[in-house]
């Protein structure tokens, strides 16, 4: 996949379409860190809500998968694997993006188009997916970077890298 603005715009268009469905559901609340945390706590205590958000997350994950990969291995060298990650960790990172403690232009753009329910749903979805290693040898340090058009920055999993 070639990286660059056209790709991001396609993704954001998808996000906008998902946003249209969200508005119809009456779930257009903007994602603040506190709102994400509170909604996750509600979902933890309410199995019916949790399964509803999980279904929403399954749809939203199609957008996330453009960068983070569908079933394990991220499509971009600078995007972390979300699949099978711990819920608490994913939730914490989204809260940090939401309140600016963690900064990343791509994720800030993505989150600007997502509701609280979609964020919590994506966490529920990705954390529940099994991690499946693709067949073949493990990727070289630089192989993924070459195909994506830009090298991975050192320490790309931390906000300080940018
Ligand atoms: C346009 C590409 C792109 C899309 C689409 C995208 N992300 Fe990301 N995401 C990134 C990048 C790049 C990072 C790493 C940021 C950094 O280096 O700090 C990241 C980081 C994250 C992290 C932190 C993970 C960790 O291990 O620290 C989470 C959680 C996350 N994204 C969730 C999502 C969710 C949920 C979606 C879908 C709603 C999504 N992302 C869509 C590019 C993207």
From TrEMBL:
Residues 135-162 are annotated as: Disordered. Keywords: Electron transport, Signal, Transport. Coiled coil: none annotated. The keyword Ribosomal protein does not apply. One of its GO terms (molecular function) is electron transfer activity. InterPro entries: Cyt_c-like_dom_sf, Cytochrome_c_Oxidase_Subunit. Residues 1-23 form the signal peptide. Gene3D superfamilies: Cytochrome c-like domain. PANTHER family: CBB3-TYPE CYTOCHROME C OXIDASE SUBUNIT FIXP, CYTOCHROME C4. This is Cytochrome c domain-containing protein.
